[in-house]
Amino acid sequence: MNATDSILRLGSRFGVLMLIAGAILWGIYHYGDKIGLNTLQAKLYFCLGLGILILLFRYGGRIVQFILGRHLKGQGAPLTSGQHLKPASQSHRAVIEMRQTLRRQYGRFGAGNMTILMLTGSVADVERLAPGLSSQYWQENGDTLLLWGGEPQSASDNDWLFALRKRFCPPVNGLVWVTSAFDHLPAANQHVSPALLSMEDIDNIAHDLAERFSLLGWAVPLYVWSLHPQADDQAGRIVQSVGSLFPPDCQSSQMRQLLSALPSRLLETGVQQVTGNPQHHFLLGLADQLTRQPERISVPLSTFLEPHRALPLAGVVFSPSSPQASHSLKHHWRHDKRWDVLLESLRPSGLKARKIGFPWRRAVSASTAALMLLWAASMTVSFIANRHLVAIAQQQVQQASAGKQPLAVRLHALSALQKTLSQLEYRSQHGAPWYLRAGLSQNDDLLAALFPRYGEMSQPLLRDAAAHHLEEQLTAFVQLPPDSPLREKMTKTAYGQLKQYLMLTRPEKMDAAWFATTLMQDWPQRSGIADAVWQGSGPSLLAFYAASLASHPQWRLPVDDGLVSQVRTRLIRQLGQRNSESTLYQKMLAQVANQYADMRLADMTADTDASRLFSTDEVVPGMFTRQAWEQAVQPAIEKSGRGTPAMKWTGC
């Protein structure tokens, strides 16, 4: 672990928190109205309250502990006889001392630059390699931190391992199993080699090492350090790093090949050392052992690589014991060249520590990266789709506004532009498709930009052309001679034409469906365009313009007051508007005249004999009876009264 890893880890956490917070704020800002947050102030208060609740949920326990600690410290009450302090364990004291020492010497984040190794094995073997580590729990030299991992076949110090798990992330960069069980070098007073470790012992050690990985919560590279105490009497020998590193996911066959290649590298240096001093035979003895009896090391280590166990075995190191030189500085570790091969191997990516269990950090990182890629792809698709939509709309505007183009081409382009506007209006009300969103949607902006251009182009092509046609028809009606029989025939048509003309001048009275249908019936042919094309596209063109006129009153047609006044005068005279109410009443009475029976005097008196008081042969027509009034006359009058105001705005 180094400072860069720490910074990246903190940055990734901060980035994820900012991403989540940004998503929550965005959701509250855009969808807060659905949960009652209707004002910006309410949304702000909600966000502040949510942030306070999250902080209390995350750090509430620490805040309470801090407050209680300050309170008890302020009181300064002594312990009663029934109270006692639980003695802190040696491992707990070691963690506190290590944290304080590292922070004092290297700063709060200084430990991030250090390589952390945990040594496990028998106390005797570990003391031969790192004197004083088993009792001091930790040693450091500025670049490397050694930690005591306990004996493999004894109970683990859970407090120590849990404390390390919380202190560092990952807690260690590598686990080193120190053992002298592979020492079969010949000694001056010994000719019989010790017995090999049994397979049961190797299985137990592998199980204990896997348990340490579980307690640490991380799977870290495992190194086997083979100590050779029988070579300790070689004082003055030049120390070098001897070992073989294994690739990630190493197989047993690969390990045997790497170990078999080691003796050839040891011979040259070993011969030089023996030539200088015959007692310095460690390298030659090790080469001889690996050549004659390689299975003494490869067979036990193959157990670690079995598929059902698959411990991350990263290499094996060979060395004599460390010189037992006394040093008074506690927690200080003397580094020598024997450690070079191991420390240099901790940096490759294949030998990095990985967290046991579901890789949440990797999953979050991968999800964030996938989300960013998806968002980038969505933005790319949205950019292309919006650019294509803008380009099509621009092309339609250019074709519709080209005065030199044939009328059919301009109307076709105007019809396509109307379809684009209808599509944009629908998307504005119901939302744009996903491929047009991603923060790049130009739907509303394009809609706001196209409608003024559409109004400019549709006025000469639709409004002015329709007004010209209606004015010609109304002028022809006005110019008819007073005694012309065409006046009676053209009155109803002229009234409809006047109504259409007035709708163009008064957008609030526009009835788009009726306007388009009636106008096309009166205007089936248009000069400059084929009849079939006009009759096919005309209704939709006129209907869309009429529907849009109410929301754009600035498109209204300037009214010709003189023409309208003349048409109204002719229509009033022809329709008899002055006595229209009496005409309607007479027509209504004629409809109910034969539906109800006449009423005589006997019918009015019912069972009473009124002949002695009254006598008459007169009758009351059935249309004037109470029954006719309630069932036919009164409803007809009310219906006629409701229909009259709708016609009055035309002035005739």
From TrEMBL:
Pfam families referenced in this protein's UniProt entry, alphabetically: IcmF-related
Keyword presence, Membrane: yes
Record's keyword annotation contains Transmembrane: yes
Family annotation (InterPro entries): IcmF-rel, T6SS_TssM-like
Domain called IcmF-related: residue spans: 411-643
Membrane-spanning residues: 12-31, 43-61
Top-level taxon in the UniProt lineage: Bacteria
Sorted UniProt keywords: Membrane, Transmembrane, Transmembrane helix
Protein name in the entry: Type VI secretion protein VasK
Organism listed in the record: Klebsiella pneumoniae
